[in-house]
Amino acid sequence: MSPLLFLGIALAGGVGAACRFVVDGLLRARIVSAYPWATTVVNVTGSLVLGFVVGLAGSGVVSEEVHLVLGAGFLGGYTTFSTASAETVRLLLERRLTAGLASGLGMLVLSVLAAALGVWLGMLV
């Protein structure tokens, strides 16, 4: 990996994290709920876009470098498995079992389906 590619991935990761912070804040200000909707939206949309990038890369539409900068960099910074995990545990500790299961399992299922849809769409291009 070249130093320029490494720098691109690192910078894209920072931009992705900043975008996550903004999207999360906007959604939390508008949706008041015990369920972590903002994290769910971030992870599902990130999975959809990552799937699309993977599909584009698999079809040869984008280079491996673009795939790495967007996928590992930007979308790696944008999505947040650790926050999703902590929020699920918090819900379970608060004995909000339905919300906790929906958060843990629901987000996983929705994210995987979104990624599959993204790959399929990317391969159509």
Structural class: mainly alpha
Shape: globular
Q: Unreliable segments (pLDDT under 50, ≥5 consecutive)?
A: none
How much of the residues is beta strand, in percent? Answer: under 5%
Order of helices and strands: HHHHH
Number of domains: 1
Structure description:
There is one protein chain. By secondary structure, this protein is mainly α. It has one domain. 85% of the residues lie in helices and 0% in strands. It has 5 helices and no strands. α2 runs parallel beside α5. The chain is globular, with a radius of gyration of 16 Å. The two termini are 27 Å apart.
Secondary structure: elements and pairs:
Layout: H1 3-30, H2 37-58, H3 64-78, H4 81-93, H5 97-124
Helix pairs in contact: 1-2, 1-3, 2-3, 2-5, 4-5
Short structural description:
The protein is mainly α. It contains 5 helices and no strands.
Any descriptors?
125 residues, mainly alpha, 85% helix, ion transport, transport, fluoride channel activity, ion channel
